[in-house]
Amino acid sequence: MKKLALHWQILIGMTLGVLWGIFASSYGLVDFTLDWLKPFGTIFINLLKLIAVPLVLVSLITGVSSLSDISRLSRIGSKTIGIYLATTVLAVTMGLILVNVFAPGKAFSPEKREEFKEQFAATTTQKSTDAAAVEQQGPLQPLIDIVPDNVFRSLTDNGSMLQVIFFALLFGIALIMIPSNKAAPVNDFFEGVNLVILKVVDIIMKFAPYGVFALLAGLVVEFAGDDPSAALELLLVLGYYCIVVIIGLALMITVVYPILVTTVGKTRYKDFFKGIFPAQMLAFSTSSSAATLPVTMERCEQNLGINKEITSFVLPLGATINMDGTSLYQAVAAVFIAQAYGMNLDIMTQIGIVLTATLASIGAAAVPGAGTVMLVIVLQQAGIPVEGIALILAPDRILDMCRTVVNVTGDATVAMVVARTEGQLHPPIEEPA
After folding, report:
1. Rounded to an integer, what distance in angstroms lies between the CA atom of residue 89 and that of residue 95?
2. Integer distance in angstroms from the first to the last C-alpha of the chain?
3. C-alpha to C-alpha distance for 232 and 174, rounded to whole angstroms
4. Are the CB atoms for 194 and 62 separated by under 8 Å?
5. How do residues 296-330 score in pLDDT, each as one tens digit?
6. Transmembrane ranges (predicted)?
7. 3-state SS class at 306
């Protein structure tokens, strides 16, 4: 009997997790689920975070050092960043067009706005405080933050991924510049470590269906509590807004990325989608591009045929700076809140939202909820009441799951495009259905 492919196992785990969450909310098993099931989801996330930094460090060093010359690194790097920025600007623009056409914010009544403000007052205050700390920094602070003063401290913090990437790039470039006979032992060491880390990924992914089940079960009971109808009622109130965001995200996955994959990548989108599907499912359940990175890299190399030289550079960089889904969400959410408050944003203000959301997406950590903090900065730049963020906090976790799928799909798309233009695509390894 054939063993089910990983993506089917994850999909089954997700479905059972949602069903259990509804059952637990209906029959008074909320505490049991939170105390005895959800922790296994947390353990699974911790396992993925455990290998995120070493994976990025080692894969980038081996990837950069394998390029053999600085000019090639410069060409691939500029191409990668250019495409990332282009897709992000396109995502933000698409989000603004949709939210202006459908105007979901105008469906809110004043009574409902006050209810949400009161319910999420504490969370809103915390997000505003976090954003204020970021905004008080100087204009070049993001550049300063990229350069670590202690690389070992950066290696102990998943939130310092840009610093890890900077060090890995510097280390890899230095390996290219020293004599090859001296660099060979170092390259061999990191190649060996990389193989070990990838094997650790394989071990962890054996537990993915169970971890995903626990994550989704915990999410549903936290959302619904002891009243399963509460989740449905809340989603219906904010459903219009959610639909607009999801339409934008769906257009990225069904229109923008397929065009890039089929025209530049010269690959059937069906094959691309099948190859990346497990990473998309994991992204949906974890809401973390960084946590999904090991699986994204594995699927791109084995199932899409992208050379490791490309994946080890493009994907870790994308998990940090390429947030198409997050940027689109920030554009929709900002205008939605303005509409809810009866504000009409002029064209220059909306252009400002495009620029701010694009830059904010580069600085957003690849972890759940980071986009919400960056959204506050977008709101402040556009002169939109920050407390309006309370209106969108309820469905944000679900939308976070959806936009992370777009982020991960965008990373894989750019990796395929860069690989094709560099002649680095080869026949993928076949996986049983």
Report:
1. 10
2. 12
3. 56
4. yes
5. 998 999 889 998 888 888 898 888 778 899 889 88
6. 40-61, 81-103, 160-178, 207-225, 237-260, 347-367
7. strand
